[in-house]
Target: Polynucleotide 5'-hydroxyl-kinase NOL9
Amino acid sequence: MENVLAESKMMIPDCRKHLDVSLTDLKTILFLLPVTFVADAAPPIENLEYLMVLVIIKLRKLLAINITGDQEKEMDSSPSQDIYIPKQWSDAVEFISCSSTPIVFICGAKNCGKTTFSRYLLNILLHKYTKVAYLDTDVGQPEFTPPAFLSLTIVHKVTPDLTVPCLKTPERCLFFGDVSCKRDPSTYLSYVYAIYDYYQKEYGISVKGENPCDIKLPLIVNTPGWVKGVGYDVLVDMLNYISPTHVVKISTSSENKNLPAGEFWLDEERDGTTNLIEINSARQDSLNRSVLFQKDARPLRDLRIMAYFRQCFSSDSNISTMKELAHALASHCPYEVPIASIKIRHLHCEVPSSEIFFSLNATIVGLAVDSEGPENLPWCFGLGIVRGIDTVKGVLYVITPVPQSSLEKVNLLLQGYIQIPSCLLQARYCSGMHLTIHVSKYFGYKLVIHVLAKRIISVAC
Model:
């Protein structure tokens, strides 16, 4: 009996660790729905999910589960109630913030804490600077945009809760069309370089001498967690091109998943002029070893897509569940786009001309401007859902939260591998009179009323 009790006691730390991960995952999923659906507004207290979140938080505190066990007292508090920042992290951020206009490159294995560290660093820098640039190269789990985007966002306000991501309108973005750069690393790198060049051009001060410009706006570069094989090569190329002032490398106790020690991106011909900061992941196990925080990225991506298209409706709309959003989108007024006025491009495969409309219907597309410059990079304004296609009239029906002033410039639809969340395809289509917006060649629009005939292929069929 004593042996059984002893073994049970030994299992308690592991049980707490698994329970902590499960509660965190559930809190993230439930918290994303009410908060990101209504921008800059607190969720209604009547919302069942929000009440469940409060219960989870209370339960977590009652069980005294924390990230690093007995080391909690040694940590600095953060703006979020359930995020603890290790002293090693706060020291790193303090060192960076004391530097003159830093360019910070954050890297590490998947789920090691890059996003949390970047949010914390962003908040600290915003206490010193009126605005901070954020270059997001993680197409799988971007910080301020839907998935599949590379973007540059200028942030002006502190994030009040480090546990909750939020959507922001980027100053420049490119639609890569996939959640990983595996399909086309060269195009991915060209997008990263183009956005960084834009940052240098817009927020640099030209001076004489060896350096082409001095930066007047600090930059945080968030990177994907693919750090092996081709992913490692891509990361090294990014580092050598950007040449940041600081590189923050986050490691865990799983050595085989970490990046190499030291300034791994330098070769014999380059001198190291970058400040390398090596820190451990904040999440630790019962033996105080830094561990990876395992989470399923797919549902989080779906939630981010749903939060994005929730912006089609005003913040005071009574839409707080996925079912309500699905019905709202199914009956939402779409833009009527003449097919002759736009170009259609699939980013990662060749589609026969006879199959273009079949592949395009009921998909998410990037709304972009076809560039005629030497690089031919299609700067993007956001996403749209191809709600239906009327081949007889020669029009597409598109739903998007992109402002009308931006739509006037759109002349290119980019199709990738980003799919509509399955829960949004379950709303039944209601035929009848629907208000649509006619979009001309230059996306000038006028309101017209159409009966959506059976020949229109509907997303909600």
